[in-house]
Amino acid sequence: MDQAKTDFLSIAWWLARSYPKQGLLPQTPDEEAMVLEVMSYAVHTLHGEGFARIFVSGRFAVREADHERIKQQGLEILQKGFAVVDRWLAGKDYVTGRFGIADAALFYVAFWADKTDVALPPNYHDHYLRMLERPVVRQVWMEEGYGRATSGAHSLS
Predict the structure, then answer these.
(1) Contact between residue 78 and residue 113 where contact means Cβ atoms under 8 Å apart
(2) According to the model, what pLDDT value does residue 142 have?
(3) d(CA 71, CA 19)
(4) What is the pLDDT of residue 125?
(5) Residue 45 in contact with residue 9, Cβ under 8 Å?
(6) 84 in Cβ contact with 42 (< 8 Å)
(7) 3-state helix, strand, coil in the chain (%, to 5)
């Protein structure tokens, strides 16, 4: 297949498979399934259902009067979804215990939460802060003009 990879899931999976020495995928089928579950949840539920309602409420309601209700639905989806992520991260630094592609998926969603003042539950918040300390994240953070690699992200705790 010689198609361009254009979505997060396929790009991340391709990178992880193409560069196995980087250790971006776990070794066991159970952990690989967890990685796919987390990435799919981040992309489709948190991003596609939650943040989409907040950022482009017009896609979910034609009438302007309904946009605030749609945004509130998005926030509710995020709060429930963040609680799920928080349970997944309980007692772990990263999704499978070491950094991988699922953590990158959770990071970009947490970044949006940070930038829109949506609170993260404690484990997810700590994961986000941990990600911000990664050298490559700090580098990109600076290159993209976000200043020091620190977060204003707040926690629900």
Answers:
(1) yes
(2) 87
(3) 39
(4) 97
(5) no
(6) no
(7) 65, 0, 30
**129-155: average pLDDT:** 77
C-alpha span between 128 and 16 (Å, rounded): 21
Cα torsion through 134, 136, 79, 95, rounded to 10: -60
Tokens 């297949």 found at:
1
Looking at the DSSP bridge assignments, the partners of residue 120 are 155
Maximum separation of any 2 CA atoms in the chain, in Å: 52
The model's pLDDT over 92-132, given as tens digits with 9 standing for 90+, comes to 999 999 999 999 999 999 999 999 999 999 999 999 999 99
Q: Return the amino acid letter for 48.
A: G
Which residue type is seen at 98?
R
Q: Which residues, 6 or more positions from 157, have their beta carbon under 8 angstroms from its beta carbon?
A: 121, 122, 125
